[in-house]
């Protein structure tokens, strides 16, 4: 005869043996972006298939990928669970978003979960940080993530896309159809090429210059760092006009320019204005200014942030295009690029059983963390919002 008390005792022991978290317990949530200007998604169906094949669970809110031409069926076929409310997607262990969540969306999140999204410093407030900390959420800013060699993969990828795209935008607005100067971007036999001025010599500038040169335009590149000017000449593989930013040379170049690209990246806080309103007023009517750095304050005095629905305005007869998320114009390309970055990170995170171990093991991942278990850990944010912060490494040391 079997003793019932022994049977009852065995069952809890078997259950307790499964306390260690497996990959199947690691749930990734992809909520739909609610900002009408944001069309990107951080994981493609192909990436979801790879993750689910490796034992991870992925929850996708319905129509999350629709603006990038990824259908719910694509995600479902790849092994994701498609849900019909944002709350269900936000209840995951790791949430992936392009735009940072709203205060209302943060309320849906589980205490102690991990958020990976853009930070978009210029749009944030102390209330946003307090909302994250009240839920003890570990928040990771993907624009501050580094790779193993010290690069910034998300910034680099989006800058490459933005740099290539701005010249196509310029081509659109130079045409007569859009009330531009009626010029082709580049040149044809017997017709002088268009003149392009690029302010900045980083990744955006490099890819804008490649595209402009490929189309046959003349370019002039300005930057205050000689090493950046030297590097861009080497990367382009040909002699191009380069100059440090001085008012006389820059003002003369702007007077002759058909297209001006503002591509200076802020080094400490807000960008420095290098193109004054007086310089803009002296430009040829119908020319176009595209300020790619507008999300960091811009480097052109007359620039004001616009949107994809109303992308341009005119000032001093100069067309201004100042949309902050240019990469969203080519959302499918941008989504694939982002997905290629985050898929291996998520696989690593699952192997280590969570975001906390990722922070502890990888300094390049730690660079993106700005809130951790109820504490603000980013000194720049603390100064901006007059809040106290704690050093992340000290918090980790206390836990381990």
TrEMBL record:
Any one GO CC term of the record: plasma membrane
All copies of domain Alanine dehydrogenase/pyridine nucleotide transhydrogenase NAD(H)-binding, residue ranges: 174-322
GO biological process, one term: L-alanine catabolic process
EC number assigned by the record: 1.4.1.1
InterPro entries the record matches: Ala_DH (IPR008141), AlaDH/PNT_N (IPR007886), AlaDH/PNT_NAD(H)-bd (IPR007698), NAD(P)-bd_dom_sf (IPR036291)
Keyword hit for Oxidoreductase: yes
Residue intervals of the Alanine dehydrogenase/pyridine nucleotide transhydrogenase N-terminal domain: 29-162
Alphabetical UniProt keywords: Oxidoreductase
GO molecular function list: alanine dehydrogenase activity
PANTHER family attached to this UniProt entry: ALANINE DEHYDROGENASE (PTHR42795)
Family: Belongs to the AlaDH/PNT family.
UniProt protein name: alanine dehydrogenase
Species per Swiss-Prot/TrEMBL record: Belliella buryatensis
């Amino acid at each position: 005869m079997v003793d019932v008390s022994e049977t009852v005792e065995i069952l809890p022991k078997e259950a307790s043996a499964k306390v260690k978290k497996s990959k199947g317990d690691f749930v990734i949530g992809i909520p739909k972006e609610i900002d009408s200007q944001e069309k990107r998604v951080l994981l493609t169906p192909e990436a979801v298939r790879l993750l689910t094949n490796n034992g991870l669970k992925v929850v996708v809110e319905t129509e999350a990928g629709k603006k990038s031409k990824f259908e719910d069926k694509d995600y479902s076929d790849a092994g994701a669970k498609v849900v019909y409310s944002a709350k269900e997607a936000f209840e995951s262990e790791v949430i992936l978003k392009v735009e940072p969540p709203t205060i209302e969306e943060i309320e849906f999140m589980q205490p102690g979960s991990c958020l990976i999204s853009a930070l978009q410093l210029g749009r944030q407030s102390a209330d946003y940080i307090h909302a994250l900390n009240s839920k003890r959420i570990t928040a990771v800013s993907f624009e501050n993530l580094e790779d193993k060699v010290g690069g910034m993969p998300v910034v680099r990828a989006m800058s490459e896309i933005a740099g290539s795209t701005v010249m196509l935008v310029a081509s659109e607005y130079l045409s007569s159809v859009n009330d531009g100067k009626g010029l082709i971007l580049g040149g044809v036999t017997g017709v002088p090429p268009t003149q392009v001025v690029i302010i900045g010599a980083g990744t955006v500038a490099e890819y804008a210059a490649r595209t402009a040169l490929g189309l046959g335009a003349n370019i002039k590149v300005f930057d205050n760092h000689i090493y950046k000017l030297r590097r861009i000449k080497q990367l382009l593989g040909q002699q191009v006009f380069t100059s440090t930013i001085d008012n006389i040379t820059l003002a003369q170049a702007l007077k002759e320019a058909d297209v001006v690209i503002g591509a200076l990246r802020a080094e400490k806080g807000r960008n420095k204005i290098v193109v004054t309103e007086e310089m803009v007023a002296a430009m040829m009517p119908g020319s176009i200014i595209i300020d790619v750095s507008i999300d960091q304050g811009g480097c052109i005095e007359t620039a004001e942030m616009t949107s994809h629905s109303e992308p341009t305005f005119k000032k001093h007869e100069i067309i201004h295009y100042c949309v902050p998320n240019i990469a969203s114009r080519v959302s499918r390309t941008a989504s694939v690029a982002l997905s290629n970055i985050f898929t291996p990170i998520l696989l690593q995170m699952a192997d280590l059983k969570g975001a906390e171990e990722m922070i502890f093991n990888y300094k390049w991942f730690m660079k993106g963390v700005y809130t951790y278990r109820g504490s603000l850990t980013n000194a720049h944010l603390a100064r901006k919002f007059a809040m106290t912060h704690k050093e992340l490494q000290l918090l980790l040391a206390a836990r381990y």
